[in-house]
Amino acid sequence: MEWILALFNGRSLAILGAALAMGLAGTGSAKGVGIAGEAASGVLTEDPSKFGQTLLLQALPGTQGIYGMIISFLILLKTGLIGGTPIELTTAQGFQFLFAALPIGIAGLTSGIAQGRASAACMGLIAKRPEELGKAMMYPALVETYAVLALLISFLMWLGIPV
Amino acid sequence: MTIVAMSKLRVIAPQNVRRPLLKELARLGCVEIGSSADHLADQEWAEVLEKFNENSETDRYLSLLTTARELLDKYAAVKSGFLTSRRQVTEQEFQSEKIVEEACAAAEKLNELGRQITIGYSEEGRLAAKRAALMPWQSLDVPLDHPSGKYYRVLFGVSPAAGIAPGELAEAAAAGGTADLRLISSDREQNYYLLLLHAGSFDEVMDVLKAKGFSLSSFKDSPGTAGENILRLDCQLREVAARRGELIGKIKALADQKAPIEQAIDKLTIENRREQLLNTLAGTKKTLFIEGWVPKASEAEVAKILENQACAYQFDAPDEDEEPPVLLQNSKLVAPFSMVTELYALPTYSSGLDANPFMAFFFLIFFGLMMGDVGYGIIITLVSWLILKKTRPAEGSIMKRLMQLGFLCGLSTIVWGAFFGGFFGDAVKAFSTHMLGREILIKPILFDPMADPMTLFILSLVFGFIQIFLGMCLNAYKLIKHGQILDAVFDVGFWLLILAGVPVCLLNVNAGLIVMAAGALGVLCTAGRSKSGFLSKLAGGLGSLYGITGYLSDILSYSRLLALSLATAVIAQVMNTMGTLGGPTVLGWVLFILVFIVGHVFNVAINILGTYVHTSRLQYIEFFGKFYEPGGRAFSPLFNKTKYVEIIKEGK
Fold first, then answer.
1. Strand, coil or helix: B446
2. How many CB atoms are located within 10 Å of the residue B403 CB?
3. Shortest Cα distance, chain B CAs vs residue A2, angstroms
4. Complex ipTM over 0.85
5. CB spacing of A152 vs B559 below 8 angstroms
6. Distance CA B161, CA B189 (A)
7. Which of A20, B529, B552, B573 has the fewest Cβ atoms surrounding its Cβ within 10 A?
8. Which whole-number Å values give the CA distances from B96 to B57, B86, B102, B157, B408, in the listed order?
């Protein structure tokens, strides 16, 4: 039992939370940007002058990873793991940080992939009608709403955790 | 502020003035000319008019000039600066026929040089292929044109590398008759042989060898050994390359012709467009029928031109069932924002409602709020201003409006940054604490969203409430303008009451609830009015009332203002934390400067994209969704569109 208690102390749980926020959301973005990138290179074989436009669309699913990093960073900051001395956390507090990381972790993972697919589909639109970039950007952006909301909730949870 | 009122223009012009007429109209740039030949599908029209045919003279010169320009780009590229603007020419210079003639002459010369270069390349290809074919025989000292004697033959041949082995083939040759087959060389595809045989056994030996995959090679016009031939070919290849160098040198000497060629391309493109336009018109033997749209305010100017060219013309108000093209007229401040609206869709002419001024107001606020940083604001403003200054993009072009938009949004970002106390995130605090050893804080004018996010959350929802309320008011305005007063009261008015109850609640809960209840009752009673039967009416009312969830989610959608504002601030904080990790050491300073520059540039770039997309989304979905009627066709007048030169208009 001793080692379980030692392992599941507050600090490791908080670190697990930070790891999940970044890891899951980062995976979502990586997959999303990858999917969009594959479609982009297809468009570019036909018309290399569309590099800028396709790059813009490809960058859209990249934000989930950044949102994950924000929450991850904030958890590390509040627990004193960066920019200060680490503070002692109770197991309950550790779990609270872990839970606060879940919204952006989960929503970041799924919305990143979904947004990547929407971006990839919009590449096809750009291939035929490059002047409609403004509209093409809106479809992936609608997916991102849920990552933004998840970020917001994760942030509010993080803010409310007493340390 | 408004959608410009349009007049329908119909002109009958004498055919002989068609070119000067269109030239003058293009100079004015406010007449959209439709294709009057479309009427010819109608039998009655077709009896009077016929399609006009304009001979195109510009096509040939345009392709000549374009090819010449490509050649100059390829062989005599001038290194241009990062931001360059179009060359300025006066109208008089632009119209000069002499420059076009000179440009065409230069283009002709350039194309001839280009043609010779192409010939050189194909010659080079031919020589290189010949050389490659001789390479396997390089080690052989027997001349390729060695004469065969009365009793013997000297032959050359190949067999596929995947086929029979050279040793076996030689044995087969010896067995077939008096012959000696020697392997000269081999590569991945073929083995190369020298075959000496007695003239008498030629047929027998060849039959044996051919059956085993051997075939003869012949070398035409190749006196001497393979090595001598290769040396000769190398010499010729060098000559070809040297000649190409000379030709490219001649092209480079014509580099100064690029400016006139580009100017001529612009001029001829305009003329070409005019010719194409003329080909869409209908006319009689001596006249042309022109039909189009003119902004009502420009009627007088257009009339003056038409009178000067002795045309018969008529301005009419658009018919009920006609959809004139849409031109938005906004103040200088609002005009750049029309780009955001146009990316969505233009409003219909009949809706008569231009949402730009309202949209611009919120766009500016939201963008600044989400970026919310003095440092980033300064960067955005400066970069936009620099690009505007250096490239002088054409009036009304996407680039121009985008940069004007950037300039204004940058200013807004500075203001919000001051409100929130952000200067490259918390750069001042992080820098002073870790690098200078004492903490310096900048006080925000309003509050710090990182420390007090709930205040910004409420502020975001308040902005959302105001924008949605305004959107509904605009819808009511539109309905009233079209005479649907009852619809305005029932479908919008009651909802406005429900929404208005929310702020009233804050002052007095009971009063607020009464207002909301009154609104809800109104919706319940009237929303199903088009249905028949009491129960269906009630069901319609209830269904409509359920739409309250839509308003709720619309307003909550504005919480993204807070989320993205935090995103900018926290990423900036991450960069500053990473940058100051080294402390006040030499290495620490290097790290700080590097991370500061790279990190903040990254943050600005990624956040401009995110902020722009989400600001636009709030306009398109939450705001426009309430009232906007998309689907207008953009007004596209005939004007002198130039790609390479900027025409400076002289006084009229």
1. coil
2. 21
3. 36
4. no
5. yes
6. 5
7. B552
8. 17, 18, 10, 67, 40
CA angle B44, B45, B48 (to 5 degrees): 100
Q: Is B532 helix (H, G, I), strand (E, B) or coil?
A: coil
Distance from CA of A88 to the nearest CA of B (A): 22
Is A83 part of the contact surface with chain B (CB cutoff 8 Å)? yes
pTM: 0.79
B501-535 pLDDT, tens digit each: 888 888 888 888 999 899 999 888 888 888 888 88
How many Cβ atoms are within 10 Å of B189's Cβ, its own excluded? 10
Beta strands in B189-228 (DSSP E): 190-198, 215-217
When scoring B431, B578, B617, B619 by the number of chain A Cβ atoms within 10 A, the one with the most, hence best to mutate, is B617
Reduced to 3 states, what is the DSSP secondary structure of residue B648? strand
Residues of A in contact with B617 (CB under 8 A): 138, 141-142, 145
CA atoms within 13 A on the CB side of B546: 7
| Residue B369: Cβ within 10 Å count | 27
SS3 B213: coil
Amino acid at B124: E
Question: Chain A contact for B253, CB < 8 A?
Answer: no
Contacts of B236 (CB under 8 A, 6+ apart): B127
Helix, strand, or coil (residue B183): strand
Task: State the best of A33, A70, A76 to mutate against chain B, taking most chain B CBs within 10 Å.
Answer: A70
Q: With contact defined as beta carbons under 8 Å apart, do B21 and B305 qualify? A: yes
Decide: helix, strand or coil at residue B143. Answer: coil
pLDDT of B650: 67
Q: What's the rounded Cα separation, in Å, for the pair B578 and B594?
A: 10
Rounded to 5°, the CA angle B139-B142-B148 comes to 150
Say if CB B372 and CB B571 are below 8 A apart. Answer: no
Whether B1 shows a pLDDT value over 60: the answer reads: no
For residue range B364-385, what is the model confidence (pLDDT) as tens digits?
999 999 999 999 999 999 999 9
- Tell me the CA distances in angstroms from B55 to B12, B272, B278, one per residue in order: 20, 10, 10
Count of CB atoms within 10 A of residue B276's CB? Answer: 13
CA distance B326 to B295: 10
Amino acid identity for residue A147 in this structure = A
> What confidence tier does A137 reach under pLDDT thresholds 50, 70, 90?
confident
A74 close contact with B: CB closer than 8 A: yes
Domain(s) labelled CATH 3.30.70.2170 in chain B stretch across 2-53+279-327
Domain B146-218, what architecture? 2-Layer Sandwich (3.30)
d(CA B554, CA B621): 9
Q: Taking the mean position of all CA atoms in its chain, how far away is CA B376? A: 26
User: Best residue in A64, A67, A119 to probe B by mutation, most B CBs within 10 Å?
Assistant: A67
Task: Give 3-state DSSP helix, strand, coil % of chain A, rounded to 5.
Answer: 90, 0, 10
Hey, what domains does chain A have and what are their CATH numbers? Answer: 10-160 (1.20.120.610)
Cα–Cα–Cα angle for B528, B482, B493, rounded to 5 degrees = 45
Residue B577 near chain A (CB below 8 Å): yes
- Asked if A138 has any chain B CB less than 8 Å from its own CB, the reply is yes
Residue B182, both tokens: 């020697």
The minimum CA-CA distance between B548 and chain A, rounded to whole Å, is 20
Instruction: Provide the residue type at A111 as one letter.
Output: S
User: What fold is seen in the domain B2-53+279-327?
Assistant: Alpha-Beta Plaits (3.30.70)
Distance CA B308, CA B305 (A): 5
Of B562, B570, B574, the CB nearest to A152: B562
CA distance B21 to B24: 5
Q: Using CA atoms, how far apart are residues B428 and B441, in angstroms rounded to an integer?
A: 7
Confirm if B365 and B462 have CB atoms less than 8 A apart.
Answer: no
Cβ pair B563:A151 closer than 8 A: yes
